[in-house]
Design a protein that fits this description.
single chain; alpha/beta; eight-stranded mixed sheet; three-stranded mixed sheet
Length: 383
């Protein structure tokens, strides 16, 4: 009897999650569908980009920004202690276009993560009414900024995040990214961040656009000095202050080659996966139980169940998860086949998180951009 109840509970939660994500994704507008306002109405903009050892990607990213159709903006590229050709590339581009300003950081102050400090320094140099925080590997289409700022002006937003189109997702990496995007939608429910009474928030490192006045008033990256998930926490900082926020899909407008292989993804999350559990093992254990129960159990049960009634219920649970992932993949342009290996992706994601957690606990901290940060100091920077 209790086991039957459990099967029905899993079905109920799976169905609710599927409906939530299915409907929620349709509440997020798409950037390329936003109509641009008159150039005279567009506010001044400063684009702040932090870069460390980005010689392979930064030139293409900066050139895509310099070619956008926007009347009044500057780019502030902050070279964060790079020891490759990043500095040379940026200085060369600066000569070509006066809209590019370059800041070189040689030393990292104590108590800061390198990227967060670089973004903070860039923000202090900014003069635009709005600041776009972005990464050094993002590709922008010509009208991306014009559409984004038009939306911000029309909606009178303090913060706008844009979910980029992920390029080059293939092989074992594809199901991981597919699962990641589903979990992001199901957990953060970013379509609710625009609602003033909702606690939901989001932030995207590729595209976090903020009103400078509000950013300065809230303390900006000084409140996020040691957060490896600074992009997400920037969204939380604005949400806690009851400011106006929203999010868009950036298909065809904002693009990034996030990771090229599963191994890069696995290693890349070592620095911030445990931060997602707020550095608490109890939260990770709770997440493990929930993941195995709702994302793995329905599929496994199909192969061991001998009762037709509960088998059908479990089949519906699995089917709803596959269906909503097929639908979610359309919004993120992920391969359809990834939906059918959903439980395997869930297990691999747990392995990824446990790898990050064990390494962080074993080393008593994380190493990022050539600097070690102790777990004790990381834990102190909470929102």
């Amino acid at each position: 009897m209790l086991f039957t109840i459990l099967v029905w509970v899993v079905f109920g939660v799976s169905l609710i999650s599927a409906i939530l994500v299915f409907r929620g994704n349709r509440r997020v507008q798409i950037l390329k569908h936003i109509e641009a306002i008159s150039p005279n109405e567009l506010p001044s903009l400063s684009v702040v980009m932090a870069a460390r050892n980005e010689e392979k990607k930064i030139e293409e990213s900066v050139r895509s920004l310099l070619s956008v159709d926007y009347p009044n903006f500057k780019i502030i590229a902050v070279n964060d202690r790079s020891d490759d050709r990043t500095k040379v590339i940026l200085e060369s581009l600066k000569i070509e276009d006066s809209r590019l300003e370059v800041i070189h950081i040689k030393d990292l102050p104590k108590g800061w993560l390198g990227k967060n400090h670089a973004l903070f320094k860039g923000a202090r140099q900014s003069t635009g009414k709005y600041i776009l925080f972005t990464d050094a590997d993002i590709i922008f289409e010509q009208d991306a900024l014009k559409r984004a700022l038009s939306f911000v002006v029309q909606e009178d937003l303090d913060h706008l995040a844009v979910i980029p189109e992920l390029l080059g997702v293939r092989g074992m990496l594809a199901p991981m990214i597919s699962y990641f995007t589903f979990c992001f939608a199901a957990h953060f429910q970013p379509w609710k961040m625009r609602e003033p009474n909702s606690s939901k928030f989001a932030g995207i490192g590729a595209f976090n656009l903020v009103k400078k006045e509000t950013y300065d008033r809230l303390g900006g990256h000084q409140k996020l000095m040691l957060r490896p998930d600074d992009d997400l926490m920037l969204g939380k900082l604005f949400k806690l202050s009851k400011t106006k926020q929203d999010i868009l899909f950036g298909q065809d407008q904002v693009k990034v080659l996030w990771y090229e292989t599963f191994w890069e993804f696995f290693k890349g999350l070592e620095k911030n996966a445990f931060a997602g559990a707020d550095y608490q093992v109890t939260k990770l254990l709770a997440l493990t139980v929930l993941t195995l129960l709702f994302h793995v159990f329905p599929f496994v049960y199909l192969f061991v169940c001998i009762d037709l009634h509960t088998w059908m219920v479990s089949f519906l649970s699995s089917g709803s998860l596959i269906f909503v992932n097929l639908d979610n993949n359309r919004f993120h342009r992920m391969p359809s086949w990834t939906a059918f290996v959903f439980p395997i992706s869930a297990i691999l994601m747990l392995v990824t998180m446990y790898n990050a957690t064990i390494k962080t606990l074993w080393n008593r901290g994380i190493s990022w951009r050539g600097t070690f940060y102790s777990l004790n100091e990381l834990k102190r920077n909470r929102l």
